Amino acid sequence: MTEAVTQFPSTEELESLFVNNESMAKIETHLNRFNPIRVMKMERMEIRHSAILSWLLNPGESHGLDDKFLKAFLGEALRGHSSLGSPTALDIARADLRDSTVRLEWQNIDIFIYSEKNAWGFVIENKFDSKQHEGQLAKYLDSVSAGLGKLADDLSVRGIFLTLHDEEPEDARYAPINYEAICQFLPRFIGQEAHLLTAEVRTFLQHYNEIIAEEVGMSAESNEMEKLARQLYRENKKALDFIMEHGAGSDFAIAAEDVFGDGRDHLDVIEIDGHKYRFCHLDHKMVSFLPESWFLALGKDEYDWKGCEQWWSGYPLISWLQLWADADGTSGQLGLYGEVGPLKEYEFRSSLINAIQSAGENLPKNRIKFHKAAADEGKQYSKFLKENFLKIKDVQDAEEIAEGMKKLLQRFQPEFDGIGSILTEFKKYGYVDK
């Protein structure tokens, strides 16, 4: 067996990469941005997110927004969930909630909101990294009565389940909302309502929105830097491959390279356990791809999908694998995601979501489910895979992560194929890329 010969980069190639390289300087500046939340290593701490949100949700706090953020949050959570009873999203929009009190970690509830004037209570369970436990959500609703006593008799209490991972609440009395939604309406307060904010509050909200946007993949700047990084890699492939081979890489990236192959370029075809995919992007915590059936049904790459030009790979939908570390830093969750993107044409987006939902209902296991308001006008990002997590015992075990990737891909192959079978009819919405 002949050993592979290492391709050493030349001095000129290394100079091209490291000396006065404008692209490298832009990426370095992006990575070195000052963000106090990140500096204090609080971006993944669930309790810190609860503390920031409870501050924003409290009309009497120092942010200057009164009940505007509170109404935006509650209205978005309850939109499409009128079956839960009063209050509905419309009730929230018409109400004055400035009397609301907000309690953090009261009765073990992450955030509890109480409006005496409206006789409403809201139990907010925040899941940034952790998963819900059996009976947990019901217990929190019951604890309101125990904590308020007779005051709870005439109180309408609603549960709200806030997640990073788009997880469905086990208790049907909870309305789901994810951090993507916050990332969509928070910029409105930073921009259009900036006159209500002090300079310090506005700067802090910009920092917080940046943290959330990066976690949910909605940061335009991060997405632009990722494209720049791919271009930089193509132009300096030999030097960067040498650095990666002899330097340190994340265990997730090592696992992804083992499964998807090393040195893959954008939209290269990959075969994993007999199934084909199109490679899109790989970084230290996620790898994105298109199942081959989606790629072929949507016309390969000759179409332009309005609204998605700067989103992932420019297609109307995408799939990706991502690893999330648990709070202990040792174990974690490997997730497989599918998402419909920010298509400009409402009819197209709504029809696509409904067709994907119907395709899931025709499969033996219905693991395709959108949030109720996913097809509403104005929505941009809608995930749809359920039961899509796999426990990883050691997030530094590349072999375990690689096996987990293969298991999730194999498990959801029926969903990939089912969605692929309905996509051809949507070619009519694509514009030929000339």
What does this structure look like?
This protein has 434 residues and is of the alpha+beta class. It folds into two domains: 46-216, no CATH class; 249-432. It has helices at 11-18, 22-31, 36-39, 46-57, 68-78, 89-94, 136-148, 179-191, 199-216, 220-235, 237-246, 251-260, 292-297, 346-361, 398-411, 413-423, and strands at 101-106, 109-115, 120-127, 156-163, 174-178, 269-272, 275-282, 286-291, 303-304, 317-325, 332-340, 382-383, 389-392, 431-432. Strands 6, 7, 8, 10, 11, 12 and 13 form a seven-stranded antiparallel β-sheet that branches. Strands 1-2-3-4-5 form a five-stranded mixed β-sheet, sandwiched between helices. Helix 2 packs antiparallel against helix 10 (220-235) and helix 14 (346-361) packs across helix 16. The longest helix has 18 residues, at 199-216. The model is unreliable at 1-5 (pLDDT under 50).
Descriptive keywords:
434 residues; alpha+beta; 2 domains; 7-stranded antiparallel sheet; 5-stranded mixed sheet; 16 helices; globular; disordered N terminus
Concise account of the structure shown:
By secondary structure, the chain is of the alpha+beta class. Helices cover 41% and strands 18% of the residues. Strands 6, 7, 8, 10, 11, 12 and 13 form a seven-stranded antiparallel beta sheet that branches. The chain has a five-stranded mixed beta sheet with strand order 1-2-3-4-5, with helices on both faces. Strands 9-14 form a two-stranded antiparallel ribbon.
Number of domains: 2
Tell me roughly what share of residues is in helical segments: 40-55%
Beta fraction: 15-25%
Measured between the Cα atoms of the first and last residue, the distance is 48 Å
Order of secondary-structure elements: HHHHHHEEEHEEHHHHHEEEHEEEHEEHHE
Main beta sheet: 7 strands, antiparallel
Outline, from the CA principal axes? globular
How many H/I helices?
16
